[in-house]
Amino acid sequence: xxxxxxxxxxxxxxxxxxxxxxxxxxxxxxxxxxxxxxxxxxxxxxxxxxxxxxxxxxxxxxxxxxxxxxxxxxxxxxxxxxxxxxxxxxxxxxxxxxxxxxxxxxxxxxxxxxxxxxxxxxxxxxxxxxxxxxxxxxxxxxxxxxxxxxxxxxxxxxxxxxxxxxxxxxxxxxxxxxxxxxxxxxxxxxxxxxxxxxxxxxxxxxxxxxxxxxxxxxxxxxxxxxxxxxxxxxxxxxxxxxxxxxxxxxxxxxxxxxxxxxxxxxxxxxxxxxxxxxxxxxxxxxxxxxxxxxxxxxxxxxxxxxxxxxxxxxxxxxxxxxxxxxxxxxxxxxxxxxxxxxxxxxxxxxxxxxxxxxxxxxxxxxxxxxxxxxxxxxxxxxxxxxxxxxxxxxxxxxxxxxxxxxxxxxxxxxxxxxxxxxxxxxxxxxxxxxxxxxxx
Length: 440
Description:
Rossmann fold; 17 helices; 14 strands; 14% strand
């Protein structure tokens, strides 16, 4: 089967590579010529564990190709996936100009029947807009070619995307024609052989499923952060509370870890888009408005602890940061809490030196020379007034505390991810602050 993926960002590259891994002939298309040139050289635009190895293997076997020409790539294809970005507009709605631009190009260049699938996260009714954009181009050509639209939202976790695609919890496909369902079932057959479920549904339901899933996960995070803040006020231990509620199978243990708020490419954008969609339809998403408000406040909580400890005077202070990406195992800094914390520290006249295992280049692209960077997790501590842990990378979990003590000016640690034990830190003589536990 010949498959075309338009867009070589996170979703497009992972999707295309995984399809090629099961033997399909895949061409990933992007208008960014430099990105395509780099992919031909094996240089990936994103960091994702295991992806570089899969890309190399499948390009070598000539199952995975990269091109800037949609016109050439679409010839002979059976299915074309639209996997371009849907960045938020200023009002929070998803910007569909890239999705609809690709749809128009497909309509302009297709020469045989196709199934056109939106893989990008898009609001309900986008498939109809895609259908209209394709049809407009076919009408201009006086072409009566048949085509079918489908929705196939992605559920990839950054840092675990390969496993998520190859061993999915579920595959959701929205269709409105049996021809599209037949082809999509054929496409995903290799992934269903081990019992992974596929759900066919109407297109609006598939589009809504993606937003609902991300909104639910964001809600769990904000709920737990809200509880953590109350625990701290009341003298309860949020880690104990988390264990107490997580043992209930109806709640579960995932996404109930308190911290400094969620970030990334999906949760913030999708929550905003769902709120906006509801507003456009004269409905208010009361819970999601609260989820978003809690999250924005939570991103400031570590900074507020720092400011309070230093008696509201941070001018001239130097702070070390461990972790810049919004979560471990990715270099993605979109909506990362670290950006809020850094901005607030700098605005107070403090300086920041930061370390992250993989996000240093991305941080430098975003922040430039406004902060200092170190390639060593201990060098970053030299003469710093305190250490802030912002991302829970595994290598931070069991550090050399003697080394930390020697390097820091003050034994002060602000743990934004609750990775250390409060009592142990006190025994070691640290001034220790975390989330949801009354400490100092």
